[in-house]
Amino acid sequence: MFFDPLFNPYPSRRMVVYGRRGMVATSQPLAAQAGIEVLKKGGNAIDAAIAAAACLTVTEPTSNGVGGDLFAIIWAEGRLHGLNASGWAPEGLSIDALEAAGISEIPRFGWVPVTIPGLPAGWAALSERFGRLPLIDCMMPAIQYADEGYPVSPVTSHWWRRAFEIYKRNLRGEEFSYWFKTFAVDGRAPQPGELWRCKDLARTLGSIGQTNAKSFYEGDIADYIDDFSRKYGGYLRKGDLEAYRVEWVEPVNISYRGYDVWELPPNCHGIVALMALNIAKHFDFYEKDNALTLHRQIEAMKLAYADGLKYVADPRAMDVRVEDLLSDTYGLERSRLIGSRAITPEAGSPPSGGTVYLAAADGEGNMVSLIQSNYMGFGSGLVVPGTGIALHNRGCNFTLDRGHCNRLEPGKKPYHTIIPGFLTKNNEPIGPFGVMGAFMQPQGHMQVIMNTIDFHLNPQQSLDAPRWQWIRGIQVEVEPGMPSHITMELQRMGHDVRVQLNAGSFGRGQIIWRNDQGILCGGTEPRADGTVAAW
What we know:
The chain is an alpha+beta fold. It has helices at about 30-40, 45-60, 95-100, 120-130, 135-150, 155-170, 175-185, 200-210, 215, 220-230, 240-245, 270-280, 290-310, 320-325, 330-335, 440-455, 460-465, 485-490; strands at about 15-20, 20-25, 70-75, 80-85, 150, 195, 245-250, 250-255, 260-265, 355-360, 365-375, 385, 390, 420-425, 430-435, 470, 475-480, 495-500, 510-515, 520-525, 530-535. The strands form 5 sheets. Strands 1-20-19-15-14-9-8 form a 7-stranded antiparallel beta sheet. Strands 7-4-3-11-10-2-21 form a 7-stranded antiparallel beta sheet, covered by helices on one side. α1 (about 30-40) packs antiparallel against α5, α2 (about 45-60) packs antiparallel against α4 and α12 (about 270-280) crosses α13 (about 290-310).
């Protein structure tokens, strides 16, 4: 797959990047460079992905952290492998427990939404199964940045300032004071180019690297988390951490115009992107900048999300099978609901039967699609004293509706928004792709895949192109770069179209494709501080 870098209908400040021996694409330059540094020291793509991921917990804490979750799709040993390193609800957290405490809905902040962090175990599992270097070697760049400091990049500074303002308004209580002690500089968020360091986090990363994450789940870090939780009425205990294990899973796919598009199965909602593409493939798309094209894309996504929000949960609790949701028959059936006017979507009845994303590849054929998150920026607002660990709030995605498959239960994983993607053709890897950003993620996946396959755009062009986002009902948001005649035509089709000035709400992606000569071709997100580092 070759692309002409000079043919760019969606100009940006970046050009597509080519490489041969290795490539790392991330939303933060220092993290991408850390990945390449590890490759040059003899590591493979998996080692590089871990190095970049560890760096991102330091250099982009506004979106992810050690106290979050991780998912990955890996091409290694001639096939795809899936890793689900997301956590479940603590044994002491239940609907009954919350009702007894007078809690009727899951809050955004505090201990209630904190599930077991799976991210450190995910790094260790990737390293143990596929890595070439010791985990601690991969984490050294992150440890150094946390210990010595690094200059905060512009987009990260923007989101840091926004998070600080939200937390200052909403966080009350001594348990939240540790967030401000860790992430504020002189009572404010750091400015672009200002040095930020966290020696507590450096020690935590070093401990994780030296023990292959055992200290986090069985040792002193687990003790710190347990003590903090008990002191402030939390539900997470050391026993929950000791019981945690990652899951190796088989990725799921649909065939789209001769390519296979891969996502991870539930509890993450990657199948929403696959369901949308499975509906869209029953239409012909001849022109990207066309209202009918966007109308059909939006309607397909609506229908896919209606099913996803009803059926996706911890797979042990799902009422339908993934293969039924992704069947060609069901995709065709749902496509027939798309007409000339915008509809309010409803779930069908299938027949029985703050996130960071990075991509890495090496010259040996290994490729990694990895995503990790604390959710909603920094997460729960809780930082474990003395560790620099910001705990996530992924439990926000549970429901307290006892009749829903995604209801809160001890030991259960919530509906999860973070999703890595991968593209293959004829059982050979094309490469990893992803677009971070909560419920935007399946929508971003659909758009960059169609930009690539239907409209023949290179990775950078696919990411640069103006995006749309379905919100609810007939409401759709578009970026300011969307042509006005398309916006007006969508409105005539019945869509409630609103121009959204906040570029961050449309996700941030990375792509690396490999052609049949082994040449790597990468693009990075123009809406972030992204970089493609190549070797």
